[in-house]
UniProtKB/TrEMBL annotation:
This is Transcriptional regulator, RpiR family. CDD domains: SIS_RpiR (cd05013). GO terms for biological process: carbohydrate derivative metabolic process. The keyword Secreted does not apply. It comes from Kandleria vitulina. GO terms for molecular function: carbohydrate derivative binding; DNA binding; DNA-binding transcription factor activity. Keywords: DNA-binding, Membrane, Transcription, Transcription regulation, Transmembrane, Transmembrane helix. Residues 1-76 form the HTH rpiR-type domain. Residues 123-264 form the SIS domain.
Amino acid sequence: MNLLTQLELKMHFTESENILAQYILEHGEEVVKMSIHTFAKKTYSSPATIVRLAKKCGLSGFNDLKITLAKELSLHTSKEIDPNFPFDKDDDFNTIINNLTLLHKETIDDSAALLDQKTLSQCVKLLDKADSIDLYGLGNSLLVAQSFAHNMMRIGKQVNFRTMAGEQGFLARVSNPKHVAIIISYSGETDEIIRIAKTLKKQKTKIIAITSLGDNQLSHYSDLILHISSKEKIFNKMAPFSSLLSIQYICTMLYACFFSLNYNEHKAFKLHYDYEEDLRHPFYSPINEK
């Protein structure tokens, strides 16, 4: 997990460390130019507390924290569009449309750059061999999971997912080595998701994680990891514009590559299903193909 995300989540921080984390989030560009003594004075803390915070974030000390912070701030500011607040209150509709269009393009480019083809190939082979694919996620992740499940089932692949609170835990408990789990979590730190991952490991179920960059808890329980574009904050944002699109992109690539493994078979199954079962179009619709 990147530094800014860790600071925002404030996991296992003391009250003094929470104050430091909040100051860094609000004044990051100033912090990278400070000495440890200046930073301590600004936050009414001590150099020892600052070093302790850095080490809790997996860094060696304050200098390492500043270097890491500078790199992440550069990533956040190098793009024209802020993924957290892509438009301002005074922007007109044209500006909003242009900004979000550019943000979508940037997110797709970033997601494509993060997608490791070897890992993707391993994921697809796992899915192909599995008797069942079980999907896990919370909130907005479930919207993408539902779409992925819909596509996979229309080419004949068994997919399970649950939306009611607590049911995903039961799904994990009845899993087995013949199942493959896909866990979608931007932070990779949600308590319920980590409990599910632990249960799946006990059941000896292979786990594919779709999560953010960095060393989050979920990554430690996963067999394969597909990374989400990770420039969006956890809480301080208008909406999950970028992260949700990145998750959708990864799931689309999983589906498309899975489809390609048995292209003719999947195509025949899909078209047969559509013609025989899909009654969305009225008989005399101009888009009806019959």
